[in-house]
């Protein structure tokens, strides 16, 4: 078993990162890669985009189970030994990809040993895949703390809003503060609406542009009908753009 390529997709709420993440996942699947999708956004929009059901056990649920076990006088080594098996309870497997949802833990306080157990088991699980694709919340701190210590590429989706540009700055600084050695790039969403001001602002951020995503009427229709990203036609403009961006993400 080797190490997978880990790609984190970030951006402010409503920028389109989940839809873009679904398109990227489909491209990875078309290339016959083994994919682990991790939905690190508590809203868990990715599962709907991928056509998954509601009754999914999350890592937050698993964390609660572990905290309850740890509060009883059970042997810590016994809990650690069962961790890999317990993680499989939260893993959804399809013929196209595997899926983990982070969810949200309800317990207050610091449970660093539990987080460490979860992260180590997730790291070992990830070695069974070629690609780990993470749909992140706004930033990368949660990924580093609870999912993966090592990320290869951080993709930040950006639209023409000032808040979106501010998110890019925050994510860039957060990655530096966490000493994440990932390369980072911007993908411009709804590209036809982006003017010179936005392109100048991106240049000022000193973050490379890895691609653009155009408006796609078929995608909007697909989303409104609650269909999976796998129902999109092969000539979808979003899929064609995702193809070019994936070429960049997987290059050595």
UniProtKB/TrEMBL annotation:
Q: Where is the signal peptide?
A: none
The record places domain CobQ/CobB/MinD/ParA nucleotide binding at: 7-227
Could you name the Gene Ontology cellular component terms for this entry? cytoplasmic side of plasma membrane; cytosol
SUPFAM superfamilies assigned to the protein according to its UniProt record, in alphabetical order: P-loop containing nucleoside triphosphate hydrolases
A Gene Ontology biological process in which this protein takes part is: negative regulation of cell division
Checking Gene3D superfamilies in the record gives: P-loop containing nucleotide triphosphate hydrolases
Q: What is the superkingdom listed in this entry's lineage?
A: Bacteria
The record's keywords, sorted A to Z, are: ATP-binding, Nucleotide-binding
Q: Name one GO molecular function term.
A: ATP binding
Coiled coil located at which positions?
none
Protein name (Swiss-Prot/TrEMBL): AAA family ATPase
Q: Which organism is it from?
A: Desulfomonile tiedjei
């Amino acid at each position: 078993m080797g190490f997978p390529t880990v790609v984190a997709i970030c951006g402010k709420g409503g920028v389109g990162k989940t839809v873009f993440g679904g398109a990227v996942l489909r491209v990875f699947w078309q290339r016959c890669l083994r994919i682990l999708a991790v939905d690190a956004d508590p809203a868990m929009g990715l599962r709907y985009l991928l056509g998954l059901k509601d009754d999914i056990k999350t890592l937050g649920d698993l964390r609660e189970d572990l905290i309850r076990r740890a509060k009883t006088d059970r042997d810590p080594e016994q809990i650690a030994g069962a961790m890999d098996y317990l993680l499989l309870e939260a893993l959804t497997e399809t013929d196209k990809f595997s899926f983990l949802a982070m969810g949200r833990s309800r317990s207050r306080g610091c449970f660093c040993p539990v987080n460490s157990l979860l992260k180590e088991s997730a790291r070992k699980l990830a070695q069974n895949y070629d690609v780990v694709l993470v749909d992140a919340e706004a930033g990368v701190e949660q990924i580093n703390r609870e999912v993966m210590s090592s990320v290869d590429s951080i993709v930040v989706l950006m639209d023409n809003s000032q808040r979106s540009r501010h998110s890019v700055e925050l994510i860039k600084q957060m990655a530096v503060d966490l000493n994440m050695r990932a390369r980072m790039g911007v993908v411009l969403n709804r590209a036809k609406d982006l003017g010179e001001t936005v392109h100048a602002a991106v240049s000022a951020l000193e973050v490379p542009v890895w691609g653009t995503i155009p408006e796609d009427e078929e995608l909007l229709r697909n989303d409104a009908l609650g269909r999976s990203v796998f129902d999109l036609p092969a000539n979808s403009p979003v899929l064609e753009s995702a193809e070019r961006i994936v070429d960049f993400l997987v290059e050595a």
